[in-house]
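Long-time lurker, first post. I've been practising inverse folding by hand and with some scripts of my own, and I keep getting stuck on stretches where the structure tokens seem ambiguous. Below is the full token string for one chain I'm working on. Before anyone asks, I'm not after the true native sequence, just a reasonable design that respects the backbone. If someone could post their per-position residues I'd love to compare against what I wrote down in my notebook.
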């Protein structure tokens, strides 16, 4: 009986569960596309592909505690045409890039940092991508 109850309970939970899409503020339709903790190597890059939709603003953010280095974001379409870029030499607490895609499709983001290898061989950071409806 206990096993039957456990199976029914598991089926009930699975019926009401769905993939996790985190809405930051449902009233204005902001959504996390991706959020990840990263350990970056000095003078190396991290590349990630994401689906982009026309009619939305995208915001990439990299948050960190270290200072005195240069961080960068570069966004490309699948033909490696540059869409947006930001190089931040101030690097106080975060680096942020806001941009729009010209059409629906797959895009890639390249991010990384450059600093003194003796002082900071790696950078521990939180990377996030947020999508929101276009605000004109």
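-- Answer (accepted) --
I ran through it position by position. Result:
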């Amino acid at each position: 009986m206990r096993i039957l109850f456990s199976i029914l309970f598991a089926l009930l939970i699975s019926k009401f569960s769905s993939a996790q899409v985190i809405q930051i503020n449902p009233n204005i339709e902001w959504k996390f596309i991706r959020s990840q903790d990263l350990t970056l190597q000095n003078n190396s890059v991290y590349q990630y592909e994401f689906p982009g939709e026309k009619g939305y603003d995208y915001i990439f953010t990299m948050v960190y505690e270290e200072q005195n280095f240069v961080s960068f974001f570069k966004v490309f379409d699948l033909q490696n045409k540059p869409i947006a870029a930001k190089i931040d030499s101030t690097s106080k607490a975060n680096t942020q890039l806001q941009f729009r895609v010209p059409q629906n499709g797959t895009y890639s983001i390249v991010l990384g940092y450059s600093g003194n290898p003796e002082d900071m061989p790696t950078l521990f950071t939180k990377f996030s991508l947020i999508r929101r409806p276009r605000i004109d």
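A couple of notes from the structure itself: Residues 21-133 form a domain with the Jelly Rolls fold (CATH 2.60.120.380). The two ends are 60 Å apart (CA to CA). Happy to go over any region you disagree with.
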